[in-house]
């Protein structure tokens, strides 16, 4: 793999797919009133983002011979749904910045964020219904399973905020829901559109699961290490909110004495102040968790890559391999 697709070709290929998504999204909400609802919807949809989920959907479909245009409504559906989860997640996480701009509830208010999210959820179903396929019923069942799993993950994430102890197994369970479920469904929709057989569907799910873990642990890591402007979120936001990230949980497990007490205080005290974020970063580097997280991300990402060998070989699989590798190295 990768030999047939060069890095240059990969970039052109994924840029083309991202453009397809980016140029279609704004057309979904034109000439709509009331402005109080739709301006927030346009704001989030036009706010950029890596468009990782629609790429997964388009590439999975292409692997099984489905044209990008045919799979596009499915790809748009998962991106729109993702944007819905971001708007509500920012309310739940008390987050002020997203994609380098104020979050919807900060720019307007919480009512706007709730409605904006509700509308996006409905829009994502509308997009799914536009798919011209005999697989619509299976796609809807897959989709609804994903929605439930994601909500369960988000519920655990908020529940963990109040807990003194969370194990790594519990953490993994939680991220499989809040992040893995949508990556899996994005791939599954592509596979279903291409009438992939049971074995291939299983491989897509397995790959999505590994990817979800790599992606969320990377997100937790970047919360404290990101330097790239495109990160667009408050640095240390998770620590300030007292979130149980992979890094914090492992830092507590790996340290003892004064070092451990320092990290435990973050949980007991409901988070730390902005002025303590760089000290937290230093202490995490010293404890070895930054390096450990890096290795775990690479490990899950390598497992996802292995799944590719069991899928129909061609340009789509090669492109996905590049995408997986570059996601594991992402800086934002
Ligand atoms: C953020 O997702 C939420 C997580 C699941 C970590 P992304 O990192 O894909 O956000 P955008 O769409 O690129 O902004
Ligand atoms: C990602 O969780 C899961 C969802 C948004 C559903 P995070 O809370 O870590 O995502 P960010 O960091 O706010 O993007
Ligand atoms: Mg969250
Ligand atoms: Mg969040
Ligand atoms: Mg995060």
Radius of gyration: 20 Å
Integer average pLDDT: 96
Could you name the ranges where pLDDT drops below 50 across 5 or more consecutive residues? none
Approximate shape? globular
Bound small molecules, deduplicated: 3-methylbut-3-enyl trihydrogen diphosphate, magnesium ion
Structural class: mainly alpha
Q: Number of helical runs? A: 15
Task: Outline the structure in words.
The chain has 332 residues and is mainly alpha-helical. The chain has 15 helices and 2 strands. It has helices at residues 7-24, 35-45, 52-63, 68-92, 104-107, 110-129, 136-162, 168-193, 198-225, 237-241, 246-254, 257-268, 277-287, 289-308, 315-328, and strands spanning 97-98, 101-102. The protein has a two-stranded antiparallel ribbon. A hairpin with a 2-residue loop joins β1 (97-98) and β2 (101-102). The two termini are 26 Å apart. The mean pLDDT is 96. The structure holds 3-methylbut-3-enyl trihydrogen diphosphate (2 copies) and magnesium ion (3 copies). One magnesium ion binds at residues 219, 223, 238.
Brief summary of the model shown:
This protein is mainly alpha-helical and 332 residues long.
List the defining traits of the structure above.
332 residues, two-stranded antiparallel ribbon, binds magnesium ion, binds 3-methylbut-3-enyl trihydrogen diphosphate, 73% helix, mainly alpha
